[in-house]
């Protein structure tokens, strides 16, 4: 991605953590390490040392690996609004702050909803969005702390990013999300085609992530909701969905 190397690291049962490496500076960043060992191993295998950790939100499946990575000297950044729940933070960030990896700048975008302090990281030049549990492939995060209005605003904000922006989300939920999306929009040809690909990938136990903003605009029922009420209805439908 425009000078950045991004490695998907599967952790726990269905989480994705991300290693981002800047070859120019030699710096390496771990995002949402739900476990330490797979991240440290993936970095070591490439001769990289993790110098930073960024966290999108406080849930354990995104931060449990931080202490062991921090023990190796990494500086830890996460949402100011969740500092009390992420005791390992060295630096807190809020809306429109800029975080850097070598010479690469990422904007912090606050996306309350799944948790109230949730943030996502957008490398505009690299065309890369690390979306945590806010935006998934064909899905959005469960509303544990926030409101449908907040999540609707998040979807509008993220849909506004360039279509080619890569979406690096926090879980492999794509197949279940897509099955639900098909109940909402059974005649969406783009969605039907995408699910054919997703089913083939999952049959081979292959990842379906990253996605792109363009693909989400075309197939994601939450990004495609026309109002907060419609998003609320769809989110409640997904919470009940077993498929
Ligand atoms: Zn979460
Ligand atoms: Fe999660």
Please supply descriptive tags for the structure shown above:
6-stranded mixed β-sheet, binds zinc ion, globular, binds fe (iii) ion, alpha/beta, 243 residues, Metallo-beta-lactamase, Chain A, 8 helices
Structure notes:
This protein is an alpha/beta fold. It has one domain (5-240): Metallo-beta-lactamase, Chain A (4-Layer Sandwich), CATH 3.60.15. Helix content is 31%, strand content 26%. It is built from eight helices and 14 strands. It has helices spanning 37-45, 60-63, 66-70, 148-159, 174-184, 189-203, 213-219, 228-240; strands at 5-11, 15-22, 27-31, 50-54, 75-79, 91-93, 98-101, 104-110, 119-123, 128-132, 135-136, 139-140, 166-169, 211-212. The strands form three sheets. Strands 1-2-3-4-5-6 form a six-stranded mixed beta sheet. Helix 1 (37-45) links the parallel strand 3 and strand 4. Helix 4 crosses helix 8 (228-240) and helix 5 runs antiparallel to helix 6 (189-203). The longest helix has 15 residues, at 189-203. It is globular and about 50 Å long. The two termini are 34 Å apart. The relative contact order is 0.13.
């Amino acid at each position: 991605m425009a000078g950045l190397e991004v490695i998907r690291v599967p952790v726990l049962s269905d989480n994705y953590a991300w290693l981002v490496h800047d070859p120019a500076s030699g710096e390496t960043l771990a995002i949402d390490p739900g476990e330490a060992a797979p991240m440290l191993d993936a970095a070591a295998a490439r001769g990289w040392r993790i110098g930073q950790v960024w966290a999108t939100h406080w849930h354990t499946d995104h931060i449990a690996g931080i202490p062991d990575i921090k023990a190796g000297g990494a500086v830890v950044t996460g949402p100011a609004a969740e500092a009390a729940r992420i005791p390992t933070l060295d630096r807190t960030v809020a809306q429109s702050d800029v975080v850097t990896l070598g010479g690469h700048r990422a904007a912090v975008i606050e996306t309350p909803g799944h948790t109230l302090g949730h943030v996502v990281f957008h490398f505009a030049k690299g065309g890369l969005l690390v979306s945590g549990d806010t935006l998934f492939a064909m899905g959005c995060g469960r509303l544990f702390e926030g409101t449908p209005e907040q999540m609707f605003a998040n979807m509008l904000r993220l849909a506004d990013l360039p279509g080619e922006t890569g979406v690096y989300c926090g879980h492999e939920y794509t197949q279940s999300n897509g099955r639900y999306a098909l109940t909402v929009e059974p005649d969406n040809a783009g969605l039907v085609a995408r699910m054919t690909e997703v089913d083939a990938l999952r049959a081979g136990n292959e990842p379906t992530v990253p996605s792109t903003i363009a693909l989400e605009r075309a197939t994601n029922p939450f990004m495609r909701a026309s109002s907060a009420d419609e998003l609320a209805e769809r989110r409640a439908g997904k919470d009940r969905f077993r498929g």
